[in-house]
Amino acid sequence: MYQKEVNRRSPLRVFERSIHGGLGPGNIGLVMSRAGVGKTAFLIGVALDDLMRGRKVLHVNTEDTAEKVREFYDEVFHDLAEANELSDKNAVHLTVERNRMIHTFLGDTFSMERLQGALGYMREFMDFAPAAVILDGYPKWDTATDEQMEELKELAGKLKCELWLSSLIHRDGEEVDDRGIPQRIARLEKHISVMLRLRPTEDHVRLELVKDHENQDLADLHIELDPRSLLLAWR
Amino acid sequence: MSKAISDINKVRNIGISAHIDSGKTTLTERILFYTKRIHKVHEVRGKDGVGATMDSMELERERGITIASAATHCTWQDHHVNIIDTPGHVDFTIEVERSLRVLDGAVLVLCAVAGVQSQSITVDRQMRRYNVPRIAFVNKCDRTGANPARVCDQLREKLKHNSVMMQIPIGLEHDHQGVVDLVTMKGFIFEGETGEEIKEIPIPANLQAEAEARREQLLDTVSMYHDGLMEAMLEDRVTEEMVRAAVRKATISRDITPVFMGSAYKNKGVQLLLNSVIEYLPNPTEVTNQAVRLVDEKEEHFDVRVVPDAPLLSLAFKLEVSPYGQLTYLRVYQGSLSKGDFIVNQRSRDKVKVGRLVRMHADSMEDIESTSAGDIVALFGVDCASGDTFTDGHVQASMTAIHVPEPVVSLAIKPASQKAQDNMSKALQRFTKEDPTFRTGTDEETGDTLISGMGELHLEVYVERMKREYNAEVQVGRPRVAYRETMTKKVPFDYTHKKQTGGSGQYGRIIGELSPTESGDFEFVNKVVGGNIPTEYIGSVEKGFRSCVDRGEFYGFPVAGLQVLLQDGAAHSVDSSDNAFQAAARGAFREYYVQGAPTVLEPIMKVAVEGPSEFQGDIMGTIMKRRGIILGTTEEDGFTRIEGDVPLSEMFGYATVLRSATQGKAEFTMEFSRYGIAPSEVCEELRKVWLEKRAAKK
């Protein structure tokens, strides 16, 4: 299969149709799940879909070294290439690497100023302007404020990029609303355009749409994440 | 003369591995001092002009770094410790890897201020490849900004070690006096001019709480490695023995990295580190080493038996020229070896007599009668190459081949005089034996001698050694990259070689396909049926093609990854010959290879640059200007590490550029990563150079 085909047949196209054209530049998307269910795998899936179409992606992370994140990408890419029998795998991988920046802030060094600084360097020295930014590990939802969310929204608007965030849902004992969304996240909902939840069932993980821009009628996505290969698939 | 070591359990073969500036040489020097191998301590870049004892090469002394690995022997607490000094610079990775092959455990030295740096990461990756158990020593606790706890965290975050503090410091920076040992829960301070007086003190009151908390962490981490420990913790009857046994087990299985600390320069903590080497690093029987033998023409790996009465298996891992003659460092893996024995080199089949067997100390040697499995010794006057296996002649096996990378850069050298010419030949002969990644050859166009290796610095060091050790002054050309060329598409061929002028004629016709391979190797596939090409000439065709891949037709570089599929052909009962079919293959290659859209492959290096975060942009700029791809950026504590892939041809002179872009505050490492397709403008340029060269020849 050729690279374009892989993109065209990606379950993410269904997802985009379901949410009427995707997240859209300047908007914030959020994926939630319990620990170890596959938030990062989902975000990498979204990133790879962009990267393979030649769109630039910045992946920001606060926990693992850049090398570790890159290994994660390589794993998902490898599985994706195998599953789709991708032709010219090496050339596509090179495209992915050329269009991707991984930036890690270890040991509580993340701040909006630093992120802005790094983005400035990327623009100035590398002519790098991302179409999507993955921000894994910020904000801290327990303590996040409206100001922080506004700052993020402003950044997405300024960069004209899609901004993806992630959040952990704790196992139990947490205050949730009628959709099962923790209060600490729901209170900031107005800043977020698309919300997704990964829900593990017996042998697979379902992707559920929790919020779709202003639409009240939420589509059933029929997409799941294979917990072994970490690839997205139709159900 | 001393006897063979009677108890293998009391042997430790260790490496001391670290970043250049973390004080490794000073630490080694102090170890040799406390183990009474030397009687005075020096500073590495000493004002006394003597330098640390382990730095046996003058060049190393001058630069304050250690390049060659020498094995040195000492004793501590009734144990024999062989220290294999491993070089820190990545351009000498073959030296590092060769030493890693022979050691059973290592001390990873880290600077308490700078912490885990880019070179530590590279060296760590190599150690992981050879499954070396490690303990860490956080050095320079006396320096301003020292923070051993942070270094321990970095081991966890950057290197993914399950690091656990075994000590906490008593005082830091200029107050640094000693450490609290979390196993015995006692304080130790070091007094006397050279720290040889160790005083046991109760834990200082201000450290009591921290010591208890850290001990909890230690116990939590290792509890699962000892059967009774968890229970003992609940009942509050944990013994020192239990903790030590658990730490030892987890260290040897490479599940944890215990962290010790001190300051070698200020003589703090070194003796306790030596105790820990004995206590926690494995003896030779506790690690598995494999050898290779041929069974029915297939390679078969098997575990060596670390016992004295098995047949001898040993590896020559290092050659050195000493004032007394050639010295071969040998690790005995199996069996035993005595003076007067005959041993057989498995590569050359040479049988040699062991004349002198010695144990090397830092700057002296000791004759010994015999040695056995697990030990490291040196032989005199044995002619061999690094990496050769010696056995008793009855065993046909080789110690696992050491992974040797192909050189990626070469340099033309020209001797300045006739005398230099002779000396240069001697030097090159020696270097190629010592270092398998260092090769020599001749430039066909100019007749100059070419030396090739793993990087610019790698070759520079050898040029300097030629000058210093062999008095061979040479002029050096510009570094050249080892490019390759390859086809990018399949081309069918049908070629007839025919010659009928006088005497017997020549005839050979071959039909088939040329195509690129993924592996990069030359492959020949014979699919001829019905005897259209007589069997005896199939080999001739292969030979003919094989002779062409040394130099491609399109760019003049060696051809990588060519597959020849031979499908059909024709022969003549009188005029066909071995020569005719070889000529047909060469003709076919000339005519059809160029139709396969040949492109240039260039070596791509994995480059890691680390420097203060304020230079992040400047560092990125230097990589982007060099056709590099930035693969990742990691920020921490004011430092940023940028990793990228950069073509080797763009990396010449990078050290200077980086220095001026960052006020000398950033450093970089690079390692060969892979061959990659060069962009078309580079290909065109190289094609032009080749065409000019070819025209000039005609």
UniProtKB/TrEMBL annotation, chain A:
Residue span, KaiC-like domain: 15-158
Pfam family, one: ATPase
InterPro entries, sorted: KaiC-like_dom, P-loop_NTPase
Protein's name in the database: AAA family ATPase
Native organism: Eiseniibacteriota bacterium
